[in-house]
Amino acid sequence: MRISELAAASDVPVATIKFYLRTGLLHDGRQTAPRQAEYNDGHLARLRLIRALLGAGGLSVAAAGEVLRQLDHPPESGHDLLGAAHHALDAGAQPKQEQQQTDHPRADALLEAWGWQIDPEDHNARRGLERALQGLEDGGFEPPAGFLDMYAAAMRELATREVEQVPVNPPDAMRYVVLGTVLVEPLLLALRRLAQQDASRRMFSAPGPPAPGVG
What we know:
Layout: H1 3-10, H2 14-23, E1 30-33, E2 36-38, H3 41-54, H4 61-72, H5 78-90, H6 96-99, H7 105-114, H8 124-138, H9 147-164, H10 170-182, H11 184-204
Antiparallel strand pairs: 1-2
Helix pairs in contact: 4-5, 4-10, 5-10, 7-8
């Protein structure tokens, strides 16, 4: 298909597709003439993936590019694969001066208390936890006693179940880990908010809408 047909099939404007080609997010089509190329279903699937990463995934172009590079060249080791996925997701997510920070005392203390086995050279996620804890303090919000431990236990259980489902084949595994991280995180947030609404309604007996077919 020509680029105009690819645009129509993907619902992505031609100008945007050309931008993705220039930045390397989308691989080139097969050259058929000096200024003309042919595209296939692989390009269509890639475009949909790019839209998911930039849209629902909320990634920057730089981070999406790193994710796609890791998907194209996955490491062999299962554990390295997870590290590569997280590295890809962290690309461009933090200012360079913050990326050099290796001091995260509160995060380290919590991780040690929980007994979590974290790579001592991997500072990205620990910086994220440190920043979140600082945000709680700056905002004057103190979680109730035991809540951080409760969150940690829930996340560890969820993560264990997720890792158990990682495919054996490296390319499939990389895709599962990366997309399962990027695209599921917004899902988790949405479910948490809906669950809070349900719990609040049940706890405080707020009147709800009538059941379907009632009235």
